[in-house]
Amino acid sequence: MWAIVKNSQLIEISNGNKSITIGDVVHPKDIFKHWTKTELKNIGVYEFISGPTPDDKFETQGAVSYVVDDDAGTVTETIAKKNKNINDVNEVDENGDPLLDEYGDQVVTKGLKTIYKEQIKQQATGLLRPTDWMVVRKAEDSSKSIPNAVTTFRASVRTKADEICTAIDNCDTLDKLKALFESTYNKDGTIDVLATMQTLPNNKDIKEYER
Questions:
Q1: Which residues contact 135 (CB under 8 A, 6 or more apart)?
Q2: In 3-state terms, what secondary structure has residue 116?
């Protein structure tokens, strides 16, 4: 990436795939390949240093700012980040009173813990749904059996989903919540301990029973 600079001010950001106009001169895109950094700097084309973007699972993006370094011939981008709340927030109005919806109920913005618990419950429901027909059939006709593999799988899904949700509830900091998404690896690159958020059972062994 490149920055077009004039009088120490950022004018434009370019990825170098098109021609650029500096003053009255149109320069072909080939200059980004064939000119040296010094030659580019001399016409006001600086190296652009991108700032790290927020992790949208845990952060929101704030203001973007740029620092122009004329001596180095660089423009450095900084992207402000704000951590998302891990707990639900009861919203209030400008007077500090509870903000109510059209039904008179408290407006609540879900925190990350609620959001990710709902996500796990949805994933668990998705794993159970294809074999729900067996449970319904059993309830309507007791002579019909449910294979042990299916019963075991369904129980393990419910148990593991509860364990993950409990682990989420136990997080009192954002860093602890982030840790639930992180696997650890052996020296050869294989997974040592799978991230907690990824430990719902795999349904590969009961595919034949799913509908």
A1: 146, 154
A2: helix
